[in-house]
Design brief:
single chain; alpha+beta; five-stranded mixed β-sheet; 14 helices; binds histidyl-adenosine monophosphate
Length: about 425
Protein backbone atom coordinates (compact mmCIF):
# COMPACT_ATOMS: atom_id res chain seq x y z
CA UNK A 1 0.00 0.00 0.00
CA UNK A 2 1.45 3.39 -0.89
CA UNK A 3 0.81 6.45 1.22
CA UNK A 4 1.18 10.22 1.04
CA UNK A 5 4.61 11.66 1.80
CA UNK A 6 5.22 12.59 5.42
CA UNK A 7 7.16 15.65 6.51
CA UNK A 8 9.02 16.56 9.68
CA UNK A 9 6.67 18.41 12.08
CA UNK A 10 6.41 22.21 11.96
CA UNK A 11 9.33 23.95 13.62
CA UNK A 12 11.58 20.87 13.40
CA UNK A 13 14.22 19.94 10.85
CA UNK A 14 16.53 17.12 9.83
CA UNK A 15 20.26 17.53 10.32
CA UNK A 16 22.21 16.05 7.45
CA UNK A 17 24.97 16.58 4.92
CA UNK A 18 27.09 19.71 5.31
CA UNK A 19 24.97 20.86 8.23
CA UNK A 20 25.74 17.69 10.15
CA UNK A 21 29.46 18.04 9.42
CA UNK A 22 29.44 21.71 10.45
CA UNK A 23 27.70 20.83 13.70
CA UNK A 24 30.21 18.11 14.54
CA UNK A 25 33.03 20.56 13.94
CA UNK A 26 31.34 23.17 16.13
CA UNK A 27 30.80 20.60 18.86
CA UNK A 28 34.47 19.56 18.74
CA UNK A 29 35.69 23.16 19.06
CA UNK A 30 33.28 23.98 21.89
CA UNK A 31 34.20 20.78 23.72
CA UNK A 32 37.89 21.72 23.57
CA UNK A 33 37.16 25.13 25.07
CA UNK A 34 34.84 23.88 27.84
CA UNK A 35 36.66 20.70 28.81
CA UNK A 36 39.89 22.67 28.78
CA UNK A 37 38.30 24.91 31.40
CA UNK A 38 37.34 21.92 33.58
CA UNK A 39 33.72 21.46 32.52
CA UNK A 40 32.54 17.83 32.34
CA UNK A 41 29.87 16.57 29.97
CA UNK A 42 26.41 15.86 31.34
CA UNK A 43 23.35 14.53 29.57
CA UNK A 44 19.97 14.51 31.29
CA UNK A 45 16.76 12.85 30.04
CA UNK A 46 14.77 14.37 27.20
CA UNK A 47 11.68 14.44 29.39
CA UNK A 48 11.29 15.25 33.07
CA UNK A 49 8.50 15.63 35.61
CA UNK A 50 6.52 18.74 34.60
CA UNK A 51 6.89 20.04 38.13
CA UNK A 52 10.65 20.47 37.62
CA UNK A 53 9.99 23.24 35.13
CA UNK A 54 6.93 24.80 36.74
CA UNK A 55 8.91 25.09 39.99
CA UNK A 56 12.32 25.74 38.46
CA UNK A 57 11.67 27.97 35.45
CA UNK A 58 8.64 29.67 37.02
CA UNK A 59 4.85 29.57 36.63
CA UNK A 60 4.71 33.13 35.31
CA UNK A 61 7.16 32.65 32.43
CA UNK A 62 6.09 32.31 28.79
CA UNK A 63 7.93 29.00 28.67
CA UNK A 64 5.82 27.40 31.40
CA UNK A 65 2.59 29.24 30.55
CA UNK A 66 2.44 28.41 26.87
CA UNK A 67 5.48 26.76 25.36
CA UNK A 68 5.89 23.36 26.98
CA UNK A 69 5.20 20.03 25.29
CA UNK A 70 3.51 18.31 28.20
CA UNK A 71 1.92 14.86 28.20
CA UNK A 72 0.71 12.20 30.58
CA UNK A 73 2.34 8.81 30.71
CA UNK A 74 0.33 5.61 31.07
CA UNK A 75 0.54 5.95 34.86
CA UNK A 76 -1.09 9.40 34.78
CA UNK A 77 2.14 11.29 35.63
CA UNK A 78 2.63 14.64 33.95
CA UNK A 79 5.85 14.75 31.93
CA UNK A 80 7.36 17.53 29.82
CA UNK A 81 9.91 17.56 26.99
CA UNK A 82 12.70 19.70 28.45
CA UNK A 83 12.38 23.35 27.36
CA UNK A 84 15.78 24.23 28.87
CA UNK A 85 18.72 22.63 30.63
CA UNK A 86 19.44 24.49 33.86
CA UNK A 87 16.63 23.05 35.99
CA UNK A 88 17.48 19.46 34.87
CA UNK A 89 21.17 19.99 35.68
CA UNK A 90 20.25 21.29 39.15
CA UNK A 91 17.95 18.30 39.64
CA UNK A 92 20.84 16.00 38.71
CA UNK A 93 23.19 17.89 41.06
CA UNK A 94 20.82 17.23 43.96
CA UNK A 95 19.92 13.68 42.92
CA UNK A 96 23.58 12.62 42.66
CA UNK A 97 24.73 14.38 45.82
CA UNK A 98 27.18 16.46 43.83
CA UNK A 99 27.50 18.91 46.72
CA UNK A 100 29.92 16.32 48.16
CA UNK A 101 32.29 16.84 45.24
CA UNK A 102 34.91 19.55 45.06
CA UNK A 103 33.04 22.81 44.34
CA UNK A 104 32.28 24.37 41.99
CA UNK A 105 31.02 21.43 39.97
CA UNK A 106 31.31 22.47 36.32
CA UNK A 107 29.12 20.73 33.74
CA UNK A 108 28.45 21.25 30.05
CA UNK A 109 25.88 19.84 27.65
CA UNK A 110 24.92 19.83 24.03
CA UNK A 111 21.36 18.66 23.78
CA UNK A 112 18.06 19.29 22.08
CA UNK A 113 15.29 21.27 23.74
CA UNK A 114 11.62 21.78 22.95
CA UNK A 115 9.44 24.89 23.02
CA UNK A 116 6.10 25.33 21.37
CA UNK A 117 6.96 28.70 19.80
CA UNK A 118 5.81 30.30 16.57
CA UNK A 119 8.33 28.81 14.15
CA UNK A 120 10.45 31.12 11.98
CA UNK A 121 14.09 31.46 10.94
CA UNK A 122 16.18 30.99 14.06
CA UNK A 123 13.22 29.94 16.18
CA UNK A 124 12.23 26.30 16.23
CA UNK A 125 10.19 23.88 18.29
CA UNK A 126 13.07 21.46 18.62
CA UNK A 127 16.43 23.20 18.79
CA UNK A 128 19.90 22.50 20.15
CA UNK A 129 21.73 24.34 22.86
CA UNK A 130 25.26 24.17 24.06
CA UNK A 131 25.29 25.05 27.73
CA UNK A 132 27.64 25.33 30.69
CA UNK A 133 26.71 25.38 34.38
CA UNK A 134 28.98 25.92 37.40
CA UNK A 135 27.42 25.00 40.74
CA UNK A 136 28.66 25.62 44.24
CA UNK A 137 30.49 28.94 44.16
CA UNK A 138 29.34 32.53 44.32
CA UNK A 139 32.76 33.91 43.46
CA UNK A 140 32.40 36.67 40.84
CA UNK A 141 35.33 35.00 39.05
CA UNK A 142 32.95 32.11 38.22
CA UNK A 143 30.61 34.60 36.54
CA UNK A 144 33.39 36.29 34.58
CA UNK A 145 34.99 32.98 33.57
CA UNK A 146 31.66 31.59 32.42
CA UNK A 147 30.82 34.67 30.32
CA UNK A 148 34.34 34.78 28.86
CA UNK A 149 34.03 31.12 27.82
CA UNK A 150 30.87 31.85 25.85
CA UNK A 151 32.60 34.85 24.27
CA UNK A 152 35.40 32.49 23.19
CA UNK A 153 32.99 29.90 21.79
CA UNK A 154 31.16 32.57 19.76
CA UNK A 155 34.43 34.08 18.51
CA UNK A 156 35.69 30.65 17.40
CA UNK A 157 32.51 30.16 15.39
CA UNK A 158 32.96 33.54 13.71
CA UNK A 159 29.67 34.92 15.09
CA UNK A 160 29.47 38.40 13.64
CA UNK A 161 28.55 41.75 15.24
CA UNK A 162 28.20 40.39 18.74
CA UNK A 163 27.06 42.59 21.57
CA UNK A 164 27.18 41.54 25.21
CA UNK A 165 24.55 43.07 27.47
CA UNK A 166 25.09 42.71 31.18
CA UNK A 167 23.10 43.53 34.32
CA UNK A 168 22.56 42.41 37.88
CA UNK A 169 19.17 41.48 39.29
CA UNK A 170 20.49 41.47 42.85
CA UNK A 171 19.70 38.82 45.41
CA UNK A 172 16.13 37.63 45.96
CA UNK A 173 15.89 39.97 48.95
CA UNK A 174 16.84 43.20 47.16
CA UNK A 175 14.81 42.15 44.17
CA UNK A 176 11.62 41.74 46.14
CA UNK A 177 11.99 45.28 47.54
CA UNK A 178 12.59 46.57 44.03
CA UNK A 179 9.60 44.63 42.68
CA UNK A 180 7.31 46.52 45.01
CA UNK A 181 8.64 49.88 43.75
CA UNK A 182 8.25 48.77 40.16
CA UNK A 183 4.73 47.47 40.78
CA UNK A 184 3.77 50.83 42.29
CA UNK A 185 5.15 52.58 39.19
CA UNK A 186 3.27 50.24 36.84
CA UNK A 187 0.01 50.61 38.77
CA UNK A 188 0.33 54.39 38.65
CA UNK A 189 0.53 54.16 34.83
CA UNK A 190 -1.71 51.14 34.34
CA UNK A 191 -3.83 52.91 31.69
CA UNK A 192 -0.87 53.19 29.29
CA UNK A 193 0.30 49.59 29.58
CA UNK A 194 -0.39 46.69 27.24
CA UNK A 195 -3.02 44.26 28.44
CA UNK A 196 -0.46 41.50 28.86
CA UNK A 197 1.84 43.63 31.03
CA UNK A 198 -1.09 44.90 33.09
CA UNK A 199 -2.23 41.34 33.72
CA UNK A 200 1.23 40.44 34.99
CA UNK A 201 1.88 43.37 37.35
CA UNK A 202 1.49 41.09 40.36
CA UNK A 203 3.05 37.97 38.93
CA UNK A 204 6.01 39.18 36.89
CA UNK A 205 6.39 42.98 36.71
CA UNK A 206 9.98 42.80 35.42
CA UNK A 207 8.79 41.45 32.09
CA UNK A 208 7.41 44.93 31.34
CA UNK A 209 11.00 45.88 30.34
CA UNK A 210 10.78 43.30 27.55
CA UNK A 211 7.58 44.64 26.00
CA UNK A 212 7.48 45.93 22.43
CA UNK A 213 4.23 47.84 23.13
CA UNK A 214 4.91 51.59 22.59
CA UNK A 215 2.79 52.77 25.57
CA UNK A 216 4.51 50.30 27.89
CA UNK A 217 7.92 51.31 26.57
CA UNK A 218 7.20 54.97 27.40
CA UNK A 219 6.14 54.00 30.93
CA UNK A 220 9.34 51.98 31.35
CA UNK A 221 11.55 54.94 30.41
CA UNK A 222 10.72 56.52 33.75
CA UNK A 223 10.63 53.25 35.71
CA UNK A 224 12.97 52.84 38.68
CA UNK A 225 16.13 50.90 37.73
CA UNK A 226 17.00 47.72 39.55
CA UNK A 227 20.70 48.56 39.31
CA UNK A 228 20.08 51.65 41.47
CA UNK A 229 18.50 49.50 44.17
CA UNK A 230 21.08 46.76 44.65
CA UNK A 231 22.27 46.00 48.18
CA UNK A 232 25.89 46.98 48.89
CA UNK A 233 26.90 43.32 48.71
CA UNK A 234 25.17 42.73 45.36
CA UNK A 235 26.58 45.98 43.95
CA UNK A 236 30.08 44.89 45.05
CA UNK A 237 29.62 41.48 43.41
CA UNK A 238 28.51 43.11 40.16
CA UNK A 239 31.42 45.58 40.22
CA UNK A 240 33.88 42.70 40.59
CA UNK A 241 32.31 40.75 37.69
CA UNK A 242 32.71 43.84 35.51
CA UNK A 243 36.30 44.42 36.64
CA UNK A 244 37.22 40.80 35.82
CA UNK A 245 35.56 41.02 32.38
CA UNK A 246 37.61 44.18 31.75
CA UNK A 247 40.76 42.30 32.73
CA UNK A 248 39.81 39.47 30.37
CA UNK A 249 39.18 42.02 27.58
CA UNK A 250 35.58 40.94 27.12
CA UNK A 251 33.65 44.05 25.99
CA UNK A 252 30.12 44.52 27.39
CA UNK A 253 27.44 47.14 27.89
CA UNK A 254 25.61 47.46 31.18
CA UNK A 255 21.91 47.39 30.30
CA UNK A 256 19.59 47.99 33.26
CA UNK A 257 16.59 46.93 31.16
CA UNK A 258 17.91 43.44 30.47
CA UNK A 259 15.44 40.81 31.60
CA UNK A 260 15.61 37.13 30.87
CA UNK A 261 12.67 34.87 30.15
CA UNK A 262 13.27 32.58 33.13
CA UNK A 263 12.47 33.27 36.78
CA UNK A 264 15.44 31.63 38.51
CA UNK A 265 17.98 34.39 37.97
CA UNK A 266 19.68 36.32 40.75
CA UNK A 267 22.58 38.77 40.54
CA UNK A 268 24.46 38.57 37.19
CA UNK A 269 22.43 38.20 34.01
CA UNK A 270 23.72 38.58 30.47
CA UNK A 271 22.87 38.06 26.85
CA UNK A 272 24.91 37.94 23.65
CA UNK A 273 23.07 39.27 20.63
CA UNK A 274 24.12 39.41 17.00
CA UNK A 275 22.88 41.88 14.38
CA UNK A 276 23.39 39.12 11.83
CA UNK A 277 20.29 37.37 13.20
CA UNK A 278 17.48 39.86 12.58
CA UNK A 279 14.45 39.49 14.84
CA UNK A 280 15.71 36.51 16.85
CA UNK A 281 18.85 38.32 17.88
CA UNK A 282 19.69 36.35 21.06
CA UNK A 283 22.56 33.96 20.37
CA UNK A 284 23.14 32.93 23.95
CA UNK A 285 22.56 34.07 27.47
CA UNK A 286 22.43 33.13 31.08
CA UNK A 287 23.28 34.27 34.55
CA UNK A 288 23.38 33.35 38.18
CA UNK A 289 20.65 31.26 39.84
CA UNK A 290 21.67 31.18 43.49
CA UNK A 291 18.27 29.97 44.78
CA UNK A 292 17.43 27.28 42.24
CA UNK A 293 19.09 24.21 43.76
CA UNK A 294 17.44 24.90 47.10
CA UNK A 295 14.11 25.45 45.39
CA UNK A 296 14.48 22.00 43.87
CA UNK A 297 15.04 20.37 47.24
CA UNK A 298 18.83 20.65 47.60
CA UNK A 299 21.00 22.51 50.07
CA UNK A 300 21.45 26.24 49.42
CA UNK A 301 23.89 26.21 46.47
CA UNK A 302 24.82 29.10 44.20
CA UNK A 303 24.95 28.49 40.45
CA UNK A 304 25.99 30.30 37.29
CA UNK A 305 25.72 29.35 33.65
CA UNK A 306 24.57 29.96 30.11
CA UNK A 307 23.17 28.33 27.03
CA UNK A 308 23.56 29.26 23.38
CA UNK A 309 21.48 28.07 20.45
CA UNK A 310 23.43 25.96 17.97
CA UNK A 311 21.21 26.99 15.04
CA UNK A 312 21.59 30.66 15.92
CA UNK A 313 25.36 30.35 16.27
CA UNK A 314 25.45 28.77 12.82
CA UNK A 315 23.15 31.41 11.32
CA UNK A 316 25.20 34.26 12.78
CA UNK A 317 28.55 32.55 12.29
CA UNK A 318 31.01 33.05 9.49
CA UNK A 319 31.32 30.58 6.63
CA UNK A 320 32.09 27.13 8.01
CA UNK A 321 35.84 26.50 7.99
CA UNK A 322 36.89 24.48 4.93
CA UNK A 323 36.48 20.79 5.65
CA UNK A 324 39.87 19.24 6.37
CA UNK A 325 40.81 16.15 4.42
CA UNK A 326 38.83 13.62 6.30
CA UNK A 327 39.36 10.78 3.82
CA UNK A 328 43.01 9.80 3.80
CA UNK A 329 42.62 6.84 1.45
CA UNK A 330 39.97 6.28 -1.19
CA UNK A 331 39.92 2.87 -2.84
CA UNK A 332 38.76 2.59 -6.45
CA UNK A 333 38.35 -0.49 -8.66
CA UNK A 334 39.31 -0.78 -12.32
CA UNK A 335 36.68 -3.43 -12.93
CA UNK A 336 34.51 -4.72 -10.16
CA UNK A 337 35.32 -8.42 -10.41
CA UNK A 338 34.54 -10.48 -7.31
CA UNK A 339 38.28 -10.86 -6.71
CA UNK A 340 39.01 -7.14 -6.96
CA UNK A 341 36.11 -6.33 -4.67
CA UNK A 342 37.44 -8.73 -2.02
CA UNK A 343 40.95 -7.30 -2.31
CA UNK A 344 39.51 -3.80 -1.98
CA UNK A 345 37.50 -4.77 1.07
CA UNK A 346 40.59 -6.27 2.72
CA UNK A 347 42.59 -3.13 1.94
CA UNK A 348 39.81 -0.99 3.41
CA UNK A 349 39.82 -2.97 6.62
CA UNK A 350 43.66 -2.99 6.86
CA UNK A 351 43.73 0.77 6.34
CA UNK A 352 41.18 1.36 9.10
CA UNK A 353 42.99 -1.00 11.48
CA UNK A 354 46.10 1.09 10.87
CA UNK A 355 44.16 4.18 11.98
CA UNK A 356 43.59 5.70 8.54
CA UNK A 357 40.27 7.15 7.47
CA UNK A 358 39.41 5.19 4.37
CA UNK A 359 36.47 4.78 2.01
CA UNK A 360 35.59 2.35 -0.72
CA UNK A 361 33.23 3.26 -3.51
CA UNK A 362 30.04 1.34 -2.85
CA UNK A 363 27.95 2.95 -5.56
CA UNK A 364 28.85 0.64 -8.45
CA UNK A 365 30.29 3.56 -10.49
CA UNK A 366 32.66 3.48 -13.48
CA UNK A 367 36.34 4.13 -12.68
CA UNK A 368 35.87 7.72 -13.86
CA UNK A 369 32.85 8.09 -11.57
CA UNK A 370 34.78 6.64 -8.64
CA UNK A 371 37.65 9.07 -9.17
CA UNK A 372 35.30 12.02 -9.29
CA UNK A 373 33.69 10.75 -6.08
CA UNK A 374 37.16 10.64 -4.50
CA UNK A 375 37.69 14.23 -5.65
CA UNK A 376 34.37 15.35 -4.17
CA UNK A 377 35.28 13.75 -0.84
CA UNK A 378 38.63 15.54 -0.85
CA UNK A 379 40.56 12.26 -0.54
CA UNK A 380 44.27 12.70 0.12
CA UNK A 381 45.32 9.39 -1.56
CA UNK A 382 43.53 7.19 -4.08
CA UNK A 383 44.43 3.53 -4.58
CA UNK A 384 43.24 2.00 -7.85
CA UNK A 385 43.08 -1.79 -7.75
CA UNK A 386 43.23 -3.77 -10.96
CA UNK A 387 44.38 -7.23 -11.91
CA UNK A 388 48.08 -6.33 -11.57
CA UNK A 389 49.74 -4.14 -8.93
CA UNK A 390 47.81 -1.30 -7.31
CA UNK A 391 48.31 2.31 -8.37
CA UNK A 392 48.56 4.78 -5.51
CA UNK A 393 48.05 8.47 -6.29
CA UNK A 394 48.94 11.35 -4.00
CA UNK A 395 46.09 13.65 -4.97
CA UNK A 396 47.63 16.83 -3.57
CA UNK A 397 51.23 16.17 -4.58
CA UNK A 398 50.28 14.80 -7.99
CA UNK A 399 52.77 11.84 -7.89
CA UNK A 400 51.72 8.28 -8.39
CA UNK A 401 53.40 4.88 -8.03
CA UNK A 402 52.62 1.23 -8.59
CA UNK A 403 52.99 -1.25 -5.75
CA UNK A 404 51.62 -4.55 -4.43
CA UNK A 405 48.25 -4.08 -2.70
CA UNK A 406 49.79 -5.25 0.59
CA UNK A 407 52.11 -2.24 0.76
CA UNK A 408 49.49 0.44 0.07
CA UNK A 409 48.73 1.07 3.75
CA UNK A 410 52.40 1.52 4.57
CA UNK A 411 52.90 3.80 1.65
CA UNK A 412 49.99 5.99 2.73
CA UNK A 413 51.24 6.10 6.33
CA UNK A 414 54.74 7.06 5.15
CA UNK A 415 53.58 8.88 2.11
CA UNK A 416 52.23 11.78 4.02
CA UNK A 417 55.74 12.87 2.95
CA UNK A 418 56.68 11.13 -0.29
CA UNK A 419 55.67 8.03 -2.19
P1 LIG B 1 17.34 30.97 26.94
O1 LIG B 1 17.73 32.40 26.77
O2 LIG B 1 15.92 30.65 27.06
O3 LIG B 1 18.15 30.46 28.22
O4 LIG B 1 17.94 30.14 25.74
C1 LIG B 1 19.32 30.20 25.43
C2 LIG B 1 19.52 30.25 23.92
O5 LIG B 1 18.84 29.16 23.29
C3 LIG B 1 18.95 31.48 23.23
O6 LIG B 1 19.84 32.56 23.33
C4 LIG B 1 18.81 30.99 21.80
O7 LIG B 1 20.05 31.07 21.13
C5 LIG B 1 18.46 29.53 21.98
N1 LIG B 1 17.00 29.33 21.82
C6 LIG B 1 16.03 29.51 22.73
N2 LIG B 1 14.82 29.22 22.22
C7 LIG B 1 15.04 28.84 20.94
C8 LIG B 1 14.19 28.41 19.86
N3 LIG B 1 12.87 28.28 20.01
N4 LIG B 1 14.76 28.11 18.68
C9 LIG B 1 16.11 28.21 18.50
N5 LIG B 1 16.95 28.61 19.48
C10 LIG B 1 16.43 28.92 20.68
C11 LIG B 1 18.08 29.21 28.72
O8 LIG B 1 17.60 28.27 28.15
C12 LIG B 1 18.79 29.06 30.05
N6 LIG B 1 18.70 27.66 30.48
C13 LIG B 1 20.23 29.51 29.94
C14 LIG B 1 20.98 29.36 31.22
C15 LIG B 1 21.84 28.36 31.54
N7 LIG B 1 20.92 30.17 32.25
C16 LIG B 1 21.71 29.72 33.21
N8 LIG B 1 22.25 28.62 32.80
Amino acid sequence: MSGSKLKAPRGTFDVLGEQAAARSALEARARTVLEGAGYERIETPVFEATELFSRGVGESTDIVRKEMFTFEDAGGRSLTLRPEGTAPVCRAYVEHGMHKRRQPVKLWYLSSFFRHERAQAGRYRQFWQIGAEALGSEDPAVDAESIALLATVLALEGVRNVRLRLASLGSLQSRSEYRERLQAHLRAHAGSLSEDVRARIDLNPLRAFDSDHPGTQRVMESAPSLLDHLSAEDAGHFAEVRALLDLASVPYEVDPTLVRGLDYYTRTVFEFTSDALGAQSGVGGGGRYDGLVEQLGGKPTPGMGWAAGIERIMLAGGPPPAAGTSVELFIALESATAEQRRAAFKLLSDARSAGLTAQLDLGGRSLKGQLSNAGALGARFVAILGDGPATLKDVQGGEQAQMPVETVVHAVLRGHHAL
